[in-house]
Amino acid sequence: MSRAWQALRALRLRLLGPVKELVGTDQFGNKYYRVPKHETRAGQIIQERRFVEAINRQAYQYEMGDFPIEWEAWIRKKRNDPPTIEEILKNENYREEMKQKIKDVSEKDKLLQAKEYKEGLVAEPAHTQVKGHASAPYYGKKEPSQDPTSTANTFQPGSWMPPGSGSSHNK
To answer: Within 10 A of 50 (CB to CB), how many other CB atoms are there?
Structure first.
């Protein structure tokens, strides 16, 4: 009987193509699938495909962080086995701990810098303000004004010529 089922399965695979297999679901409800490596009717070998069906999302609405990093690594074939819920939760807790530690160290560093500035151990950073860019034609000079230099009373239709046009007659 198993021989007959294998033959029917092989026939269905050749006629209809492979079936996507549900591999797992994340805590947000996104479902992760794989289509195993298979051979087409023409004999072409199609490599394994991995993809996600996001819950309530269109393809153009994806944003960084919508999927757990572990699942993203699996989809991009950076890892062979799909992640477990325990692994995802453990890594999430670790990331939260690291964020808190970074915040604590940053606050301690700011307090230490303030203390050193106050005691005169370290010179405070100079607060320079540079306007423009060195490649700008007016660098170090007064910037050109954005205010209009003429009024509507002096405008004559057809009198304006683009700069560098070289032509002095009006059309």
So the answer is: 16
The Cα–Cα gap between 155 and 149 comes to 12
Tracing tokens 């203390």 back to the chain, one arrives at 115
User: What one-letter code names the amino acid at 12?
Assistant: R
**What distance in Å separates the CA atoms of residue 67 and residue 60, rounded to the nearest whole number?**
14
For 17-37, what is the mean pLDDT?
86
Taking only the tens place, the pLDDT of each residue in 32-56 is 999 888 777 777 888 888 988 888 7
Distance (Å, whole) CA 10 – CA 19: 12
Assess contact for 166 and 153: CB atoms under 8 A. Answer: no
